[in-house]
Every structure is written in C-alpha cells, then in structure tokens.
Write a structure and sequence with these properties.
25 helices, 20 strands, seven-stranded parallel β-sheet, alpha/beta, six-stranded parallel β-sheet, 4 domains, globular, about 600 residues
Length: about 600
C-alpha cells in the first residue's frame, strides 16, 4: 500500500504529490479524479476535510492510503464526528436555551444550517432575509471561550450587540473604535465593527471566527474587500473559520461579483475555479472597445512623435504620423456582457460553499406576503419641470436606452443610466408628486389602526411625510445615528409610534419591524434586491399576520416605464439564486 501525506494547509487538508514512478502518479491521478479531488501542480487538494473522507475509498481501491500528520489527523477526526446525524455546533445548546426562554426553538432548517456551517471552514450563508442567519452563526462559538470578529454595516452593530447579549450571554460584545481599530478577539469576546475598522495587518486569529454581515458589500474590487480577504486568509491559515452572511448574494448578472464573495470566504477556487475561467461557465458576449491610453508609456511615445515634428497638436502632424500617434493614444480592451445564464454544473458547484434557503421553502408557516401596485393620481401641473421640452426629450432618450440595456441584460449600462440627471430628476419629482396619494393611503391605514412602514429611495419626501403626519411618526435615513435608529425601532415595536418613514438604502438591513403588516413604497430602489430587503423588515420570523406590500405607481407614463424596468431588472438575479436553491432548467453557457 503506497502512502499519501496529508497536512493542514490554510484551514484545509492538502494531499502532497508523492515521489514515485510515472505510472504510479498516473494511477493516482485517475483515482483522484474518481474521488473528485482537484489536481494542481503541487498535488491533490481537498479543500474540505469531508471531501478527503469521501475520497479515501477510491484512493484505497487504487492502492493508495492517506498518512496524515498529527494536525491533519485531528482535523479528519473532527470532520468524521461532524458527519454524525446528532452532531451539533459547540454553542448550539446555549442559543437554544435562549430561544426557549422566549417560547421559541430552533427550526429544522436552522438546525441543518448550523450543522452545515459547523462542517465548513469557509462558507456563505445566503438564506432569504428574515430567516434567522444570526442565531445559526452564533451557535458556532464555543461556550465562554469562543472568539469572533463580525463586521457589517454601521447600522447593524447595535442589532448585533443586542443579539449577542440575548443569545450568547456567556460572551461579551466589544465594539471597534474608529478606522482600523478592530481589536484582536480574546477568548469570550465577539468584536463588532465595520469593514473600515479592520486594520491593514490582521492580528493573530488562531481558532477565531471571522464573519461579514450583509456580505454583498464584498462583491466589488475595493480596498475594503482586499483588507477583509487578508483577515480571511489569516483566520483560515490559523485554523479558524470564515462565514459570510447575506440575504442577497446576487445583486447583478455579473458572476465576477459572486466569485469575489466566494474568494473572501476562501472558497472561490474549489467552487467556480479561477476568475479567468468564468467565461466557460457563464453565458456572455465580448465587445472590443478602444479606450484612451493614459499610461506614462503611451503619453511619452506620443510626445516623442510631436517633438520630432515640432508639433503642438495632432492636427499639425503629417497624416501617417497623425494616424500613428492616434493609434498610440488608445488601447483595445474587452468588455464582457453577462446574460445571467450559466452551465448546468454551476448549481452543483455553488452548493458546495453556499447555503441558500427561501421563505417559501423552509418557513411555510410564515404568514403570506402579497405585493400589489396602487395607482397614484397626480395633480395637473405637479410635474411642470418634466413638461419642459428639453427635459422630456432627454428623459425619453434615456428611458429608451435603459429599456434597451435591460433587454440586453447590460447591468452596467442600466446602472449608469439610472444616475443620469434626466432619470434621477424625474424619479425625485415623481416621488414628491405622489405624496398626496400616499397621504390618502396612510389615512386609510390609520383609521383601521394599522401601523405602517413607508419606504422611498429619496429622503426629502420621507421628511415631508413625517412633518405632515405629525406626532407618532419617525424617520430613519442615512443621517440617523445608531442610537436614534435603535430607539425608533424599539418605540415602533412597543406601539409608541404609528408609523415609520424609511430610506431604502439606509433602513433595508438590520431592522426588525414586525409590528407592521403594511409596507408602502413611495418609489423603488434601482436595485431590486434592496426593495426585497426592505420588505423583509416586516415579513420575517416573528411576524404573525399576512404582510401586504403596496407600491405607488403614478398615472404618468414615465413612472409606469420606470416600474416596468425595475420589474425586468429583478429577473437578472433569479437564475443563479434558483441554482443555489437546488432548482434546475438553466440555459447552457455560450
């Protein structure tokens, strides 16, 4: 029996390439392929210990066995124990006691989620908003000595502080102080802060849990993401764990965003492979573009041509030299346009590292949610600014371009058009013009004794709502402090407020407002996932009544076209989310 050496590497197990005859290596390669292990230049790496356990029979059949070092043997033993049906994460019992004190218990899907997280070193928990991701994560921490770093939006820190105190009273919540001020977690501490609070050089994180809440913030190619990745690699290398929490793992049709999130959890390579390989998995079109080359090298080459001819501009150059200078001034690049379709294997790959459950799948006892558009009549002349010929013409052009971009699945162009002055101005004016119709609706709800949540993408109309409704109404927006936000939430839940006016971007996360069964959108955010998160403030665990979502649509062609655009845009994320949830029927990649 020939032996393979296994060692712990970055929190995973790695099989080292053995010395041996070429035929031995070929036989090992075939056995590794049957076992599902990925071949690399160094050897065959099992990124999860349970993968290595599953591979062992095929390797033994081919005449190979695994000889782990002491650390790898302990990791394998822990993984084998975690396969048992009755196994629970170390803090599971403490969280369960806290739930039972409130007359609740772990739901079956939460038990399975906590067990799944306990088996993974790096993972993304992508349950729909409102399904209790926090308690599943808190169950991972050992009693009294567990240590963790949790980063997320600033407005989520008070909620996390309360959750730690409620479900893990054996641990102490510690807030980071300022930019780069995240402390190294000590035994029994959960350190809380924002992505900005992470220091450039991560501290010693042996055995620590690193988590990012609202982890879709890591989808971009940013310095904040780079800093989190440095902490993530340090935690995994020290035998720790990395968990990303997000109810909206797909915001756009661009799979590179999902790859970056997986990379932050240390799981990109073993799920989707290298970044450069995404084109083989996801349908796309490649457009060749010429863009200005502003590199010092290009500028110097062009300047030499100008100097040789004593010219100050291209117009003073001979035609042949002018053409050469123009060619040096631009460079050809490729722009990839993703359609959102993918090859059938993508779903299986993603489910290795991403756990996604929807309310419809696992919380069937959650009251139903019903959405409806409500026509909002606007007074003649209320949109006088839009009646100006130049505004109307520019708006029509932008809307036509946006509809074309939506049909092509061009999210980048769609986002850029949304920020154009014509569309941004129209949306702001339409939101304000719908205030009288909103007032009539709120009068109906107040007469029926129904507290309401009013969301808008614009702050000024919200402040006007609060001013007009008077005492008993509050507003939460980007300028609301953490303390005021928590106070308004508590007052609303306690019945001291009749309603809340909320900014979608500022208040669609880290708030539980289940006292309301009515959610009203004065207008919608350009990112459909943000609107769904806003709905989930009321439609979540703890809600006992059916939730009605009313979206005000003005009787104006511009508002109707924008509403249709947003509905179409919401389809972009559906395919990948369905793949994560285990559904099939996706188109093959082009």
């Amino acid at each position: 029996m020939r032996l393979l050496r296994a060692r712990v590497s970055a929190g995973c197990l790695e099989i080292l390439r053995p010395a041996g005859a070429p035929r031995d290596l070929a036989a090992l390669g075939r056995a590794a392929a049957r076992a599902g292990l990925r071949q690399t230049d160094e050897g065959w790496r099992a990124l999860r210990p349970q993968d290595l356990l599953a591979a062992a029979p095929a390797l033994r059949e081919a005449g190979w066995d695994i000889a782990p070092d002491e650390a790898a043997a302990a990791t394998l033993a822990a993984a084998e124990e975690a396969q048992g049906e009755g196994w629970r994460p170390p803090g599971f019992a403490l969280v369960r006691e806290a739930l039972q004190r409130k007359g609740r218990d772990f739901r079956p899907y939460q038990v399975e989620g906590a067990r799944w997280l306990g088996r993974e070193r790096g993972a993304i928990l992508a349950d729909s908003p409102g399904l209790g991701k926090t308690i599943q994560l808190l169950a991972l921490l050992e009693p009294e000595v567990g240590r963790a770093v949790v980063v997320g939006p600033k407005n989520a820190i008070p909620e996390w502080t309360a959750q730690v105190g409620e479900y893990r009273p054996d641990l102490r919540a510690v807030k980071a102080k300022g930019r780069g001020g995240m402390p190294a977690p000590q035994p029994g501490e959960v350190c809380l802060g924002t992505l900005e609070s992470l220091a450039p050089a991560p501290p010693e994180l042996a055995g620590a849990l690193l988590a990012c809440d609202e982890a879709h913030a890591l989808k971009g190619d940013t310095a904040q993401r780079d800093r989190f990745c440095a902490w993530s690699r340090a935690a995994l290398a020290a035998g720790g764990r990395v968990v990303l929490l997000t109810g909206t793992p797909i915001l756009n049709a661009d799979p590179t965003e999902l790859w970056r999130m997986l990379d932050a959890a240390g799981r990109a390579e073993d799920t989707l492979g290298p970044l450069a390989g995404l084109r083989a998995l996801f349908a796309h079109e490649v457009e060749a573009l010429e863009v200005p080359d502003r590199s010092p090298r290009a500028k110097a080459a062009v300047q030499r041509i100008l100097d040789q001819h004593g010219a100050r501009s291209f117009a003073q150059l001979p035609k042949a030299e002018r053409d050469r200078a123009l060619a040096l001034s631009y460079r050809r690049v490729e722009r990839v346009r993703w359609s959102g379709d993918h090859s059938p294997e993508v779903g299986d790959r993603l489910r290795r590292a991403v756990l996604r459950r929807t309310k419809e799948q696992v919380a069937r006892d959650l009251p139903p949610l019903q959405r409806a558009d409500r026509a909002a009549r606007i007074a003649p002349g209320a949109l006088a600014e839009l009646q100006a010929a130049d505004v109307a013409r520019r708006l029509a052009e932008r809307l036509a371009a946006a509809e074309d971009a939506s049909e092509r699945g061009d999210v980048e162009a769609l986002e850029a058009l949304a920020e154009s002055p014509a569309i941004a101005t129209a949306r702001r004016l339409l939101a304000s013009a719908k205030l009288p119709a909103l007032g009539d609706l709120l009068d109906e709800l107040e007469a029926a004794g129904e507290p309401a949540l009013v969301f808008s993408a614009h702050v000024d109309p919200l402040l006007q709502v609060v001013a007009e409704r008077g005492e008993g109404w509050g507003a939460i927006h980007g300028g609301t402090s953490e303390e005021a936000r928590a106070e308004l939430r508590d007052r609303f839940q306690a019945g001291d407020l009749r309603g809340l006016a909320l900014s979608i971007r500022a208040a669609s996360e880290a708030l539980t407002l289940t006292r309301s069964a009515y959610v009203v959108f004065l207008d919608l955010d350009w990112v459909p996932a943000k609107n769904e998160q806003a709905e989930a403030r009321a439609h979540r665990l703890g809600q006992a009544r059916p939730v009605t979502v009313l979206r005000l649509v003005a009787d104006h062609p511009v508002d109707r076209r924008i509403a249709a655009l947003l509905r179409d845009k919401g389809q972009f994320q559906a395919r990948l989310l369905a793949a994560m949830e285990g559904e099939s029927g996706h188109a093959a990649a082009a």
